[in-house]
Predict the structure.
Amino acid sequence: MDIDGFWELVERSARETETRQARVAWLKDQLSGLSAEEVVDFKALFTVCANRACSWDMYAAFWTVTGFGSSDGFEYFVNWLISLGRDAFEKVAGCPDRILELPEAQRLLELSKNFSHERTTWSRDGRFSLKRVTRIRREVWPGEDDPRFESFAYVTFEPYRRATGLETDSLGKAVRARGVRSKFPFLTCHAEPDGEGWDFDDEAEFTRRLPRLARHYGLA
């Protein structure tokens, strides 16, 4: 399997299904019909793509758009970016600052805005105020919109076991034998993210690195 075949499977899985659970099941079914070597191909290509998005600037984009920082969350966010398809991934992997061009990212912002409603009530004498926050729904993002897609990275596990009778640690070894090593988990001694770490609270540096995101959030 080459990179074109990899992206064809990723994008077909979106076209052929309507939910994430169904999408994962569809990919497992398709990969189960392939040879062990092709399953390793898919996992290796997935890892190569994920590595391209493992950078400090991408982490800053993730941290800004989602509103939280997390090593695992960032990895699942990169899985989600891959799940959006080749065009979307290439656009953002090459320039994390373009993330707001993605319709899916714009929807995240909209969902974040209408997640809760804040109302301030002042006392009659105006000396103190009471703030009330009402949540519109239980979670910021409904499941199908959540920018974290953990299970998308696991679709090769079951097909590999079926094809070889071996456990998933053997799959990892097969991928590494091809010279492909994951840059994740992020923020650990084993991680090798691209670029140098920087202070995301430094507005001048943020504006220099991610000018579009800075403008959107009023930093520039």
User: Anything to note?
Assistant: The first strand starts at residue 116 and ends at 122. The CA atoms of residues 32 and 159 lie 5 Å apart.
